Amino acid sequence: MRLLKLPTMKLEPGMFIAGLDRPWLETPLGVQGFVVRDAEEIQYVSNHVEHVYVDAEYTGAQQPLTLAVAANEAKPVMQLALKAEFNRTKASFRKAAEILDTVFHALRSGYPADISAVQTALNPLIEGVFRNQEAVAALLRLKDVGKYRQHHGVSMAIWAAIVGRQIGLDRIELEKLAVACALCDVGMTQLPSELLDQAENITDPQRRIIRAHPTMSASLMSKAVVIDKEIIEIIENHHERLDGSGYPRGTEGASIPLLARIAGLVDTYDAMITPRPYAKARTSYEATLELLDCSGHQFQAALVEQFVQTIGLFPTGSMVELNTGEVAIVVSQNITRRLKPKLVIVLNGAKSHRTIPKLVDLSDQFIATEGERWIARELQSGTYGISSEEFFI
């Protein structure tokens, strides 16, 4: 890639914008590059930035990818596909959480754990990531709170599979990563239950006990009859951080295994978007901004970038409020413009239910006749009496 600085009004259709004169998040544009298609888009870009950086060596297609279906077929085809995969994933998620609960209970009682059962339970979820990643991601945003440790472990496994697939891991590596993520917190079974839900007034001795759980988890798993050494390494290092601020050993940089770096990233993200006894859930957007703030020091910048690219700032299943006051559900990502996903508008500007939900692609709007829509903020599911899950079931 060879970047050239260019005033926005000198852009031409077919040019690939790889950078801006300001952070992407300060504009309504996507969080990664995109191809300018026409004069209207050039004018739109110039309204928000003064100059851009274009890839002088770009030779790709002059338009971003679109769904290969007729416009009047897009909604039913997409909705049915999402619903089918969502419900399939929901059943697989519950089964995996039940298996993990059994493992946690066995370990808490001093009995050996059946690791092969965990891998078997996770395989349908990994397959779901390959079939319809967006429906799987939606399930993770809308899952029942349930037993936090077990649900968090399964969620970690799926988020990790999504990231792993994005960066090109093979199936064997994905399975190792998923199993390790599901088992990262098994060491918590050896801690006093009252300590796990304590958020305030934690003493230094208590903090040292909690921070020993990766080592305890790895020790418990190493006693299993058959378990891959790489899985143990992921478990033991998932709380280590790039800058050495993590635990239990303060390992830093490349000394932290790649798969453990992925595990640490998805562990943090899922914890932030999940309500816990001592903390309210953050929106996906808030959690993503937190990861971006930590990019380059706590988390590897390239992994954060890949994670954001694959799930979007507003992941499928998120509920959002538009600048018009309308409320919508994100149903599909735009691979070139992450702030402009496809939505289904379910409430009008007065917050009344639409008789027929409206499908809108924020990257391809009829601005002249309807005005421009953009996402103003993300809402927690349940706001205005609407649950995102209603669209998927």
Description:
The protein is 45% helix and 12% strand. It has 393 residues and is α+β, with helices and mostly antiparallel strands. The strands form 2 sheets. A 5-stranded antiparallel sheet has the order 8-7-6-5-9. A 4-stranded antiparallel sheet has the order 1-4-2-3, with no helix packed on it. β7 and β8 (353-361) form a beta hairpin. The model is unreliable at 61-78 (pLDDT under 50).
Please summarize what this structure is.
Helices cover 45% and strands 12% of the residues. It is α+β, with helices and mostly antiparallel strands.
Topology:
Blueprint: E1 3-7, E2 16-20, E3 34-35, H1 39-46, E4 51-55, H2 71-108, H3 115-142, H4 148-166, H5 171-183, H6 193-196, H7 204-210, H8 213-222, H9 229-237, H10 258-273, H11 284-294, H12 301-311, E5 319-322, E6 327-332, E7 342-347, E8 353-361, H13 367-370, E9 375-379
Antiparallel strand pairs: 1-4, 2-3, 2-4, 5-6, 5-9, 6-7, 7-8
Helix pairs in contact: 2-3, 2-4, 3-4, 3-5, 4-5, 4-10, 5-9, 8-9, 9-10, 10-11, 11-12
